[in-house]
Amino acid sequence: MFKNIPCFGIAGNFAQHLEQAGEASDFAGLVREGGAPKGIFPFYVPGNSSFLGRYPLDNERLKIPKNAKVQAEPEIALRLGLNYDEKGICALKPLSFMSFNDASVRGVKAAKISHKKNFSGASRGAGNEIAIDKFSSGGICDDFSLASFLRSGSEFLAYGECARLSEYGYFYEKLLEWIKITLNTQQDEAVLEHLAVFLEHKPKQILLALGATRYEPNMENRYFKAGDEVYIIAFNHKKFSLEQIKELAKDGKISPSDDISVLIQRIEYE
Predict the structure, then answer these.
(1) How many folded domains does the chain comprise?
(2) How is residue 81 annotated by DSSP?
(3) Which residues contact 109 (CB under 8 A, 6 or more apart)?
(4) pLDDT score, position 35
(5) In this structure, is residue 149 part of a structural domain?
(6) pLDDT tens digits, residue range 98-149?
(7) Which secondary structure element, helix H or strand E, spans residue 18, and what is its range?
(8) What are phi and psi of 150, to 5 degrees?
(9) Residue 97: CATH number of its domain
(10) How far apart are CA 206 and CA 185, in angstroms?
(11) Which of 33, 76, 149, 265 is deepest in the core (most CB within 10 A)?
């Protein structure tokens, strides 16, 4: 699905997530004006000679190290078209959005955020893509919310707080301008990496995960174990209530459509 395009994620684009994940200290020295996200990190770069060259998306399984603390990061991801001029990226065109799991290893020290991300060949996943008419107020994204659930044995529980897409700290035109500037200018700093080296071949598209929502309080310290199933669902809240989505998912009746982007992954040990 995305094997031929670089894939990135945004850190710190949803209030309180970094604190819940125990990762706020990683960004303590990265001061950003106006509540801007902390930065962008790579998690897959086709042809890269490091672990970043390993394709990490699997839309049915999440394979985790047996002794690691791993959590899902329920997010929205965008497929973005890129245009360039002599100075670098000059314009971005949002083509589609989807539910996304930007799963992360917790409780470990890592030189860069990316080291906590691409931890196996099935370390993240994406739901079905939904076409974007316009990425601005009045467009399709106004009508969507993101929910997530955890099935563990006989329990089916809310995992992340249900949030409207418009609740992202940076979204629409403000987000696109920030992405363009960050992709062009971010340097190697603290846990962030110099991004231009991952875009030197001027890819026509990238995948970008926009940042994780907040966890439900009882999920802040709940780490995956084999046999768990995680559900990450973007849904049209004008056509479905959260309770309807939960019941459809719980009963195994939820399916992808123009109104629902759904990702279901079963957790396995490597």
Answers:
(1) 1
(2) E
(3) none
(4) 80
(5) no
(6) 999 999 999 898 899 999 999 999 999 999 999 999 999 999 999 999 999 9
(7) helix 17-20
(8) -125, 125
(9) 3.90.850
(10) 17
(11) 76
